[in-house]
Design goal:
- Helix 13 crosses helix 18.
- The chain is α+β, with helices and mostly antiparallel strands.
- It has 20 helices and 19 strands.
- The longest helix is centred in the last third of the chain and has 23 residues.
Amino acid sequence: MWVKALDLLLDKMKRAGLDFSRVRALSGSGQQHGSVFWRKGASETLKQLDPDQDLNQLLQDSFSVSDCPVWMDSSSSQQCHELQAAAGGALRLAEITGSRAYERFTGNQISKLRQTRPDEFQDAERISLVSSFAASLFLGDYAAIDCSDGSGMNLLDIRTRTWSEICLEATAPHLDRLLGAPLLSTSVLGPVSSYFVQRYGFSESCRVVAFTGDNPASLAGMRLQQGDIAVSLGTSDTVFLWLQQPRPALEGHVFCNPVDWQAYMALLCFKNGSLTRERIRNECAGGSWENFSASLRDTPLGNNGHIGLYFDTMEITPPAVGVHRFDRDDNEVSSLSPQVEVRALVEGQFLSRRLHAERLGYSIIPGTRVLATGGASSNKEILQVLSDVFNAPVYTIDLSNSACLGAAYRALHGLVAETGVCFFDVVKKAPEPQLVVTPHPTAQEVYDTMLRRFARLEERVLQETRP
């Protein structure tokens, strides 16, 4: 399906009149965690592609597994337990690979496939991520896995940027041979395959820059810098972080940074996002966003000490469920007035985002920017609370196709990365995000204290609701 999609895309671009000879470099992004198993002999097929035929025809017998494991597969719990035991526990695994064991992560998917479909596993000569698989097509040879996407496998040591021997041995024998050595995300893999030169008119000098995962590519597309945090306010809220000194934990994910090999990025997912905000809007603001915004304007920073944790469905970060409201003396209460409830929800959500970001090693520094995107980023009052809680200015950005844009930025950077030119010098002419709000002068004093209270209350909720 992926190969056929590439055929269709390139044929459509050719019919539209795109001059492929003008492409100096290309890169790409692929959905994280998915894997492709190349059958023995596929390497030779890749090197001898007939430009008169579609890739789909040429490669139809090149895969030992036809239905590739992808991120939606959560059936590898047993393999996760085995990997964590081999590494010395969930936290130790997170310290090595950036994450505790997750069912969707590639290493656990590989382990399961080896155990349940041994013949197909034995027939594989190479295992690619979706990103390095796509790069392999353009390269005409097996492309290396880049360190940033490789961080989403539970196999890469994120500090040495090499495969962890402990994790490899726990997953499959001789796995290093099947994966190949990982490469820095800014690496140039080589020139584009002659297949694309002859079939589509690419220049022989066009370079293929290492492809990466969709989340790392989004970080590049957003042009996050040191100290920045991006908050996507959607059905689920997602937080992207640029980190210098990561502290991997049992929640969230730390990856090698795709644009600066000495830095890291982190990803945090919060399930209770806009749907919870909409529920409180309906219950406390008559279904009106105008009334919801007025409640935020009319209540003070810190909400006179009232705090709320709103987990309508089982939360990911932290693993808790239920609605928990507290008064200024930390007594749990059954209800709050409508206006206070609105602010308790929004402050509580953003205090949670900040708390869990800081636990992964994030810190607010001079020059920190909060980049907001997603549906709720159009509400200035919600963004004002976000700005106050983080004590940093909030900017809005258009995140549509950010992974695709990030791949293009990374291709451009790849051409000059080896000479020491930094990513941000390459993309400095790109459109800047728009400043929307700045923090209130008293925000830091209010929310630094409130954050400590929130952390204690969240831990209390976890202790009381733990089965």
